[in-house]
Amino acid sequence: MLFISISDTYKGIIPKKALYLKKAVQIPTPEFFVIYNGLEEYPDMKVLKLSDAYISPADEPSLELSVPVINIAKGHNKELLGQSEALSDYAVFVSLVYDRIADGDSRDEAIENTIQFCLKNGIMKEYLERYGSEVRRMLSLEWDEEVYREVLLEEGLERGRIEGRIEGLNEGRMEVARNLKSDGFSVEIIARSTGLPVEVIASL
Q: Is 24 part of any domain?
């Protein structure tokens, strides 16, 4: 997503005529961060790389993008949040939305109730007064529960297929090991041939 975003950003700031210049075009130095505030367990800090998604891994990929992911969910990066009021307020805002949903509010109710609470208590007050409608639109429209559930199902099915293939592969190696053992091959030879641990082969 960031890769697409930076492409669109540079497309907007680089003049079209620059495409025809012979000299290198100077561009702003990009710096990326992703803020994580989800409910699932996640480390305080993790670096994601574009190359992690490549089908064929490369030691030195021609195209790379490294992005630090910072976890600001409850209990994470307290020192960092203490250094930034804006980031701390945002973490509180999102946490309040989650809490209200957990208490039974619909997503839209949780967003609206949290906005009103934050306005009354000075949390992100200036930002919400200026961009409140944009916050409502962004939080209400960008998350599609139906698509989310569909993705979860697809990931589950794919994980099941992978696990099934791994299980089938392991069972195949076990069968080869049994046959080799019955033919009198040593445990060491069978281990080298199948990749199975010596202890497993000895127990067959």
A: yes
